[in-house]
């Protein structure tokens, strides 16, 4: 199993170059094709009611500005891809908002790389629930890069938050190409007694064996906590000096609004290391 197509979202934010660097390093290691995708931020549905026309001079000026901003983002992507020696790459500009444009392209990719929402640096082309939307709707593993910390390595010391759910299973399986290159994978299980049938007599034994068969070096730890599990995961990742968290993403959509589970919401809001999520 390997990643052969990696999609990275690029934009005008301060952390876009970091996302591209991480995506480029993974693409080079996996010998994968790398796609840098920018969006104009205007939904493709805007013209469907017939009330708005691209021939409107005021709209045309605004669309030109949005297009030029996207072109600047993909130029930065190309420079970094070349710098890091990625042999197969392309850049794409989607005339759409981020959720729609990136979400569609994600379905033809093995891994999506994007940034955590920074509410102090709102983007005119990206809605605040963009990461959640991609996790829940793309059907692909999503590697989310934090905005508040410098990332020097990814997946050398990963931490898996394992709860034996379908979502967690999907995330671990999706992360295998990264986990195989890790020095040591830590598997953490919180409050296994709450799901005894799923974890079995020895919580963590089955997932450790599964990973070992992929030649992945793994250690398992079991934790009991009465506090918020999301914060407990973040605290443990700090104590272990982890450089990536792997976990299932939980939630559902109501119209366009994303309703996320408590642990997922905590991680997405407070993460300090890259998080690979699958739903």
From TrEMBL:
Membrane spanning residue stretches: none
Sections of the chain in a coiled coil: none
Domain (UspA) ranges: 3-146, 163-277
InterPro entries linked to this entry: Universal_stress_UspA, UspA
Pfam families: Usp
Signal peptide: none
Recorded superkingdom: Bacteria
Family: Belongs to the universal stress protein A family.
Name assigned to this protein: Universal stress protein
């Amino acid at each position: 199993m390997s990643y052969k197509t990696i999609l990275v979202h690029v934009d005008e934010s301060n952390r876009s170059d970091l996302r591209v660097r991480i995506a480029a390093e993974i693409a080079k290691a996996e010998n994968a094709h790398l796609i840098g995708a920018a969006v104009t931020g205007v939904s493709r549905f805007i013209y469907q009611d017939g009330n708005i026309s691209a021939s409107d001079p005021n709209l045309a000026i605004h669309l030109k500005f949005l297009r030029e901003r996207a072109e600047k983002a993909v130029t930065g992507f190309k420079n970094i891809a070349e710098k890091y020696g990625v042999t197969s790459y392309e850049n794409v500009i989607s005339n759409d908002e981020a959720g729609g444009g990136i979400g569609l392209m994600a379905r033809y990719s093995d891994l999506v790389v994007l940034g955590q929402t920074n509410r102090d640096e709102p983007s005119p082309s990206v809605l605040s629930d963009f990461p959640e939307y991609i996790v829940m709707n793309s059907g692909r593993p999503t590697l989310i890069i934090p905005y508040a910390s410098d990332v020097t390595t990814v997946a050398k010391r990963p931490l898996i938050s394992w709860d034996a759910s379908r979502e967690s299973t999907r995330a671990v399986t999706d992360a295998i190409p990264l986990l195989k290159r890790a020095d040591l994978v830590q598997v953490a299980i919180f409050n296994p007694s709450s799901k005894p049938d799923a974890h079995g007599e020895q919580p963590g034994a089955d997932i450790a064996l599964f990973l070992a068969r992929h030649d992945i070096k793994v250690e398992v730890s079991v934790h009991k906590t009465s506090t918020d599990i999301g914060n407990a995961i973040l605290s443990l990742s700090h104590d272990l000096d982890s450089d990536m968290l792997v976990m299932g993403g939980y939630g559902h959509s109501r119209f366009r609004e994303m309703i996320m589970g408590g642990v997922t919401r905590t991680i997405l809001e407070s993460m300090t290391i890259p998080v690979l999520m699958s739903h």
